[in-house]
Give the backbone structure.
Amino acid sequence: MAAPLCVQLEFGGGAELLFDGVRKHQVTLPIQPGPWDIRCLLVWIKENLLKERLELFMQGDSVRPGILVLINEADWELMGELDYQLQDQDNVVFISTLHGG
Amino acid sequence: MPAPVLCQSCGAGRAALRRPKTGRALCRACFVAAFEAEVHGTIVSARLFQPGETVAVGASGGKDSTVLAHLLRLLNERHGYGLRLLLLSIDEGIAGYRDDSLEAVRRNRGRLGLPLHVLSYQELYGWSMDRIARHVGPKNNCTFCGVFRRQALDRGAALLGADKIATGHNADDVAETVLMNFLRGDVGRLRRCAGILTGGEGTLPRCKPLKHAYEKEIVLYAYFQGLDYFSTECVYAPNAYRGHTRTLLKDLEAVRPSAVADLVHSGERLAVREDVRMPTQGICQRCGYLSSQPLCKACVLLEGLNRGLPRLGIGKPSRLQKALTGAEKPEAGFQEDSEQSSNAVRTIDF
Ligand SMILES: [Zn+2]
Ligand SMILES: [Zn+2]
């Protein structure tokens, strides 16, 4: 990777409550030896953005079942899930279905 | 970058999701059309509504009831159901608690153009939760709130002259409830909980038009349609047992997405052996709500509050029943009302 990646992260459906109630985050991911896939992104989110209750967001190295992920407005199940390699200016949305209303 | 997956329905659009029920990849437009058509199909095949009915949509401001209200308004117009729809929200009267969710309901009312009625515990029962809490103390007010909440939609809808109540329960909710009732051995509830249209005989019929809709699709439908809803603290928080059941279901769903539909199906098809004794279902002498005792739990609690003995309704139900109903003796071999175990089943979408 030649340059740092800029991506937009969005949390909704109650997931934002784990991030101080902030829905949109413009983040810059540092240069790293390997590619930035979603697996790495989740680790980065855990270490840099998540404010509370990790167990409500993650399970193992993935998101907790019941949290939907959209990459550039498409279901991550169609995009390779954890193996998807982030591109500059990508948009990743996490929507919780686990929060009541 | 992987090439975008194409829609398996129209073959032209970029696929936006994989449907959990069928595994098919659909574009946004095809998904929205299919989702709406399926809910319409459910409504028609289960004969949920009759022309001319007034339907109260239980509106909590959350995702399920927001999508339900939106769909019913849309399908009512598109297919000419001939329904009079109204939104019904309940305000428990806890300072600050409903402010954000009622705000979401009000924003949606504007968008939907449906009449909204917010009924408070004060209007329905003569007591707000804040006032009840001052009388009974913080330890017991959850009992009151839960019991009153179970009946609030029924009382509210009856007050508004509605013929029917529609709630936003989705396939995941029903599957979870089937699983939980099974785990608890609650046969009476197990038999009822998967029904799409329940009630009647003294209480208003209730229906669940989203019964076959997956939570994932409801949330994505709301997202794609730009519907605005309110989310509160995690559903894992309040009830540990339901939380574990939910986790189990979500984990199963991750391995095999049809698990949700399969459980709903199991709930529908389960037959209860003839010789299994069911709790006797009667009707409350005072308010007409379903109750296996002469007075329903809400009326008992209210009686306690109004007599200035608020703790009367907590614990030992049968002795109290006897005291309150006076002359009328309860039948011998009375069954403990299963409705009285608090937090047992989330029957109302709040
Ligand atoms: Zn399509
Ligand atoms: Zn009653």
Remarks:
- The pocket of zinc ion (ligand 2) is lined by residues B 284, 286-287, 289, 295-296, 298-299 (CB under 6 Å).
